[in-house]
């Protein structure tokens, strides 16, 4: 199957000590939180690309980190996020990617519960005519957002990014704009130490996960 009509945007924070996974620092320390962040990026990338052919674009939070990401993604497919908040950054990235393909998904680097079947479902719904596809997160946000042909004007306005109200506020925006959307089943991401036991269970099913992430998760759930 051809995926020339698809782009998957992988949003990742640049791996900078003290600036990533800060909620894990009291448990793992600065270096441990950084290592966990790096390993989550690697694992999520593996899970959403394994055995697939859809074009991936890596959107990093700031420039100057291309060398670290080079092992996953070729530099021509690397981009730098632009905007003051997450909504502005997603709007910019989606708008740019829609110039290259009519069906575009954006996902987060710590959404390790995503897999190729989940993304295929979202792609199928867009191809079947859905204007917007949402992958709800159990914490009240979303782990995936897909759009077809255009980014609805105002979709990212008046959203409390980082709060448990993101998903419901996004639904409200879509209702206000009279846009029909489709939702996938809820998934989880790794935001707080309480997510680590579930990550530990996922790792038992993923033999390709690095030993380092197993060590940090083991320490955290002891």
Topology:
Blueprint: E1 6-12, H1 25-49, E2 56-60, H2 66-69, E3 78-80, H3 86-97, E4 103-108, H4 116-127, E5 132-136, E6 142-148, H5 166-176, E7 181-183, H6 196-204, H7 211-221
Parallel strand pairs: 1-2, 1-4, 2-3, 5-7
Antiparallel strand pairs: 4-6, 5-6
Helix pairs in contact: 1-7, 6-7
| CATH architecture group name | Alpha-Beta Complex
CATH fold-type name: Spore Coat Polysaccharide Biosynthesis Protein SpsA, Chain A
Shape: globular
Radius of gyration (Å): 17 Å
Your description of this structure?
The chain is α/β, with parallel strands linked by helices and 222 residues long. The protein has a single domain, classed as Spore Coat Polysaccharide Biosynthesis Protein SpsA, Chain A (Alpha-Beta Complex), CATH 3.90.550.10. The chain is 38% helix and 16% strand. The chain has 7 helices and 7 strands, in the order E-H-E-H-E-H-E-H-E-E-H-E-H-H. Strands 3-2-1-4-6-5-7 form a 7-stranded mixed β-sheet, with helices on both faces. Strand 5 and strand 6 (142-148) form a beta hairpin. The radius of gyration is 17 Å and the shape is globular. It starts with 5 loop residues before the first strand and ends with a helix. The relative contact order is 0.16. The mean pLDDT is 91.
Task: Quickly list its features.
alpha/beta; 7 helices; 7 strands; Spore Coat Polysaccharide Biosynthesis Protein SpsA, Chain A; 222 residues; seven-stranded mixed beta sheet
């Amino acid at each position: 199957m051809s995926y020339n009509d698809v782009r998957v945007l992988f949003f990742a924070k640049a791996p900078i000590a003290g600036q990533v996974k800060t909620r894990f620092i009291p448990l793992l320390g600065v270096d441990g939180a950084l290592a966990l962040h790096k390993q989550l990026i690697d694992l999520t990338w593996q899970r959403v690309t394994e055995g697939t052919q859809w074009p991936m674009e890596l959107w990093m939070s700031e420039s100057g980190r291309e060398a670290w990401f080079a092992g996953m993604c070729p530099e021509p497919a690397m981009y730098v996020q632009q905007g003051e908040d997450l909504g502005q950054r997603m709007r910019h990235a989606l708008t740019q990617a829609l110039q290259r393909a009519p069906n575009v998904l954006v996902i987060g680097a710590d959404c390790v519960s995503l897999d190729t079947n989940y993304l295929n479902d979202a792609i199928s719904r867009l191809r079947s005519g859905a204007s917007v596809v949402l992958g709800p997160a159990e914490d009240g946000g979303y782990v995936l957002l897909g759009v077809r042909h255009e980014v609805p004007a105002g979709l990212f306005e008046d959203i409390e990014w980082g709060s448990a109200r993101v998903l419901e506020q996004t639904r409200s925006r879509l209702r206000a704009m009279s846009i029909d959307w489709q939702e996938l089943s809820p998934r989880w991401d790794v935001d707080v130490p309480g997510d680590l036991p579930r990550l530990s269970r996922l790792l038992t099913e993923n033999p390709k996960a690095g030993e380092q992430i197993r060590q940090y998760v083991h320490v955290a759930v002891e």
